[in-house]
Specification:
The complex is a heterodimer of chains A (598) and B (293). Chain A contains eleven helices and 32 strands. With 598 residues, chain A is an alpha+beta fold. A seven-stranded mixed beta sheet of chain A has the order 17-18-19-23-22-21-20, covered by helices on one side. Chain B folds into two domains: 234 residues, Rossmann fold, CATH 3.40.50; 50 residues, no CATH class. Chain B is built from nine helices and twelve strands. In chain B, helix 1 packs across helix 3. The longest helix of chain B is centred in the C-terminal third of the chain and has 25 residues. Classes of the chains: A alpha+beta (598), B alpha/beta (293). Chains A and B meet through strand 2 and helix 2 of A and helix 7, strand 9, strand 10 and helix 8 of B.
Chain lengths: 598, 293
């Protein structure tokens, strides 16, 4: 059986060995003795003429007893235990998958190696399992080898945002059981983590500067401008160099100085002729926010047609002009959405995506009464309809499949109809005889409806995302539709991934800053850039070291090892050595007092 | 030591003198008329010899019977009875005085010698010697212990200065008792020669301490020389101690060897045991003292 020491601090008692030796080495205080035979002593060799500061170590019984006593005390204090041969312990390591761990990953590998090698000693066998706190699926490592566990760390990429560790800790605890050890490897202090997990943190406050956000906009002259935010996450002023890279060209490096915790805005014109650019900040230990890829946003085109009497142009044109990224259909082009009127006297509803409203030649007279109430729907969420005034008019026929968005009294006022895949927003009131076109809620509702149509349109677009951001992408469906091809470009590195259509609903931007595109059957559906903008992860000032594994070590030792059964004997031996040493030091002289003739 | 303590010691020594005597019986002595057998003819009852009458002889000692037989005057000679002479010398160097036990033993031996000499009817001359200095002490001063003050006034000596007895006016054929620890450097010859000068009979009573004969030194010491008061740092290890003991043994071996050559009795007397026990160890066996019978 291997022996371990439950209290390694007890080895400090070994300092008693040099202490005892030093005491025996050091000169005893010279004793003053009056003698009458000094002339005899002076005749002896010179060695005796002067005293020495350090005495030669003399072997004596008290010396050896005291050394034995120190050794025995050390043995008792270190609390030796013998590991049972059948003991098995299970250790689960939950790696904090948040992006800030990028900075401390190497330190964590060393700390884990050191701590796990320590924990290994308390049992004959150790089973490891290592998980990512984001619960990405498979464990990072599972097996008995600590070295293999450490070797798997370089491939692990913590790129997540701030998240709750509890689910991962729950999984870890279920894997190792109540007697196992769950270690949360993170970069900050965490008091009382769930499921009796122990915290091992290698974090330390670290200065960081990085991009915290961006926008790309057109100014009034049509010039595309980018604007990026740079933040100093430290208590010290920082100065960094930055430049813009586009199409193989680099701008001249410029310097940006930031006061402690200052947020500054950088801006500039989007490089002419290019759709993509990369802002690069002088590197530091946290690299994720030092590169800001961006693309010139180009939304999907949306053609908004009009099918209404000309007399309504005065009403509809301002409405259509107020909508962003909406154009009238070209010649021969089928509009994506049609703004159409409904005449109760000629009750025909066109096919396709519509915004349909009532229009009749004469007024029916009277305003609609009753309370206005909105249904809980994404299109109406947060909108205030209390100022809406509508007049009584014949109603557009309502079907059971229609989804009412807005009521006034018992009359469905606005409905959403889905007819053979076409989405129709039905305004069941006379638009021209209401104040709806001047009501913000109405304009927003129409905008939301058009954006919904745009999102569902299969067409290429350019967009900027934050890293890891989930998004929806309209794509062709059906038996003939091919899978999506996801291509990410990080500098010279390019990665491609084929995404089956059944997973297309869970698309996410790359976890690291990168340009990427998505194609289907050779058609580019999306050109995009993903940038890192998680300020909580980029702020490393609250990182701090922590290690409470020592607290569990004694419990493990008690669990997997047996105590020295002879400790009472050793304690008795210490007492005996103490008494014997005292006796030999203070024993009376054995020399006879009887004179011996010379 | 106060006078009372000295008086106590003197009393003990006087009591010891009732048990022990000086070895005056085995030799003939010169001196005034007394109780001891003299070396010449005297008026005692012990017949010694005959010789022819010479003018001036005491006519009372003419052997008239012999004259009747032979017609010649012959004289009957009787043993002379004299008072022996004892010259007592006390070494009062500081080495005799630095230790309480040794001091007491020295005083005991001194007073024992005084009282033993007086009890033997000897004429006693007492001297105190300290290095090359000496002085004679009168009997009154001894009995009143005033000699201690006189001894204290003797000039100090250097370390281990030998007692110089050569200048002492020893009487011819006297017994010379020398009470000294003999702890001084140099040859014993001058001392022994002085003790035996003029057909004197020398006896040395040598008190010693156990701490001198078998010290238990181990380690660093600051030794204070008993006579000069100088301080000396020494480190004494086992080997040094062994060599010291050998030197101590050789020192007294030399004294004893030369003592035999000079016919001087050397009796070493330890300081620790009671006086009678201490005397029995060597003084009696060596003939330095005798028991009254």
């Amino acid at each position: 059986m291997d022996v371990i020491f439950a209290n390694p601090a007890g080895f400090w008692a070994l300092l008693g060995l040099p202490a005892v030796l030093a005491i025996h080495f050091l000169q005893r205080q010279a004793r003053t003795v009056t003698i009458s035979t000094l002339f005899l002593l002076d005749q002896l060799q010179k060695q005796s003429l002067t005293g020495r500061r350090v005495e030669r170590l003399r072997s004596s019984i008290p010396l050896w007893l005291q050394l034995l006593m120190v050794l025995l005390l050390t043995w008792l204090l270190v609390d030796p235990r013998w590991i049972r041969e059948d003991s098995v312990q299970r250790i689960a390591v939950v790696m904090d998958g948040s992006a800030s761990m990028q900075v401390f990953k190497e330190d964590m590998a060393g700390a884990l190696d050191r701590e796990l090698s320590h924990l290994e000693t308390v049992a004959s066998q150790t089973e490891y399992v290592m998980l990512d706190s984001r619960i990405l699926g498979e464990s990072l490592y599972h097996g008995p080898s600590r070295s293999d566990l450490i070797a798997s760390l370089p491939d692990w990429q913590p790129l997540g945002g701030d998240h709750d560790f509890t689910p991962a800790l729950r999984v870890a605890r279920s894997l190792v059981g109540q007697e196992g050890v769950v270690i949360l490897a993170t970069d900050h202090e965490l008091q009382n983590p769930a499921f009796d997990a122990r915290v091992l943190s290698t974090g330390r406050p670290t200065a960081n500067c990085g991009f915290a956000g961006m926008t790309v906009e057109q100014d009034e002259s049509g010039q595309w401008l980018w604007k990026a935010l740079v933040r100093n996450y430290s208590d010290q002023p920082q100065t960094r160099q930055w430049f813009l890279q586009s199409g193989g060209q680099k701008s001249a490096p410029r310097s940006v100085s930031l006061e402690p915790n200052q947020l500054r805005s950088l801006s500039g014109a989007f490089p002419g002729g290019g759709d993509a650019a990369m802002l690069i900040l002088e590197g530091d230990s946290f690299a994720l926010d030092d590169r800001l890829p961006l693309v010139r946003p180009i939304p999907k085109p949306l053609a908004l047609g009009k099918n209404a009497p000309r007399k309504l142009d005065r009403l509809l044109d301002p409405l259509m002009n107020s909508l962003e990224n909406v154009t009238p259909p070209g010649s021969g082009e089928v509009p994506d959405v049609t703004l159409a009127s409904y005449d109760p006297l000629q009750p025909a509803i066109p096919a396709g995506n519509l915004i349909l409203f009532v229009d009749q030649a004469r007024s029916a007279g009277g305003f609609l009464d009753g309370r206005i109430a909105a249904e809980n729907h994404p299109l109406t969420e947060g909108l205030n309809w209390q100022g809406l005034i509508t007049q009584n008019s014949p109603s557009i026929p309502v079907t059971e499949q229609d989804e009412v968005l807005l009521w006034q009294g018992g009359r469905p006022l606005i409905l959403l109809r889905i007819d053979q895949g076409a989405r129709q927003l039905i305004l069941n009131f006379e638009l021209a005889r209401s104040n709806a076109s001047r009501l913000p809620a109405f304009v927003i509702l129409v905008s939301r409806f058009l954006e919904d149509i745009r999102d569902r349109k299969v067409a290429p677009e350019h967009r900027n995302f934050e890293t890891g951001q989930a998004f929806q992408l309209a794509h062709a469906i059906g038996e003939d539709a091919g899978p999506l091809l996801f291509t990410a470009r990080r500098g010279p590195l390019t990665s491609e991934e084929e995404i089956p259509l059944n997973r297309a609903a869970t698309l996410r931007a790359p976890a690291e800053p990168a340009f990427f595109d998505i194609r289907q059957d050779g058609v580019v559906l999306l050109e995009a850039a993903a940038y890192f903008a998680d300020t909580r992860e980029a702020d490393l000032t609250s990182a701090a070291p922590m290690n409470n594994l020592r607290e569990v070590e004694s419990q493990l030792t008690m669990r997997h090892a047996e105590k020295d059964s002879h400790w009472q004997f050793w304690a008795l031996l210490v007492a005996m050595a103490l008494l014997a040493s005292w006796f030999f030091i203070h024993r009376p002289t054995t020399t006879s007092t009887t004179a011996q003739p010379a | 030591m106060d006078a009372k303590a000295v008086a106590g010691i003197a009393s003990r020594a006087q009591a010891a003198a009732d048990i022990y005597r000086l070895p005056l019986q085995h030799r003939v002595w010169r001196g005034q008329v007394g109780d001891m057998q003299g070396s010449g003819a005297g008026s005692s009852l012990d017949f010694q010899d005959h010789r022819s009458y010479l003018p001036g002889d005491d006519p009372r000692h003419i052997n008239w019977q012999a004259y009747a037989r032979t017609g010649n005057y012959s004289m009957k000679l009787y043993r002379e009875e004299v008072r022996p002479m004892v010259d007592l010398v006390l070494d009062v160097s500081d080495s005799m005085d630095f230790d309480e036990a040794k001091r007491a033993r020295v005083l005991e031996l001194f007073y024992l010698s005084v009282h033993a000499a007086i009890k033997s009817g000897a004429t006693l001359h007492t001297y105190l010697v300290k290095g090359s200095s000496h002085l004679r002490v009168q009997e009154d001063a001894i009995h009143h212990h005033a000699w201690l003050t006189e001894a204290a006034n003797l000039p100090a000596t250097g370390p281990a200065a030998p007692a110089d007895l050569r200048a002492l006016p020893f009487r011819a054929q006297s017994m010379r008792l020398f009470v000294s620890d003999l702890l001084f450097s140099g040859s014993p010859d001058p001392v022994l020669g002085a003790l035996t000068r003029g057909r004197g009979r020398g006896i040395i009573l040598c008190p010693f301490l156990q701490s001198e004969a078998a010290p238990e030194w181990d380690g660093n010491y600051e030794f204070v020389e008993a006579e000069a008061g100088t301080r000396h740092h020494h480190r004494v290890e086992r080997s040094i101690l062994k060599r010291y003991l050998e030197a101590y043994r050789r020192h007294f071996e030399l004294w004893k060897t030369l003592g035999r050559k000079y016919d001087v009795i050397l009796a070493r007397i330890p300081s620790a045991p009671p006086l009678q026990k201490a005397l029995q160890l060597e003084a009696l066996s060596m003939g330095a003292l005798e028991v009254w019978t």
